[in-house]
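Here is one chain, start to finish.
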Amino acid sequence: DVQLVESGGGLVQPGGSLRLSCAASGFTFSSYYIGWVRQAPGNECELVSFIRSDGHTHYADSVKGRFTLSQDNAETVLYLRMTGLKPEDTGMYYCGVGPGSRDFRFWGQGTQVTVS
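Its structure:
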């Protein structure tokens, strides 16, 4: 079974940094798209970043240059390093995996990021 468990969220001041982790099991990273989506109250979900099955990494314009996606050597943990955090980065961050960046089939429970 596919399992995704996020951690690392919290409360941080503007300009601060956080590193989110997504511990994954039940699938092979290189076979799917895996990434992060966030949702703030009253807002639509935003695709923050993902890595394709061919290794290409994509970032939303709103986070480009501030967020960095990486994975551990065993390809079991996906990280999202977030720097220069802004209040508009506040939201629930979910890790997802699926056959496409707009087709995540499995999700974690989410981790809350609050920038204030």
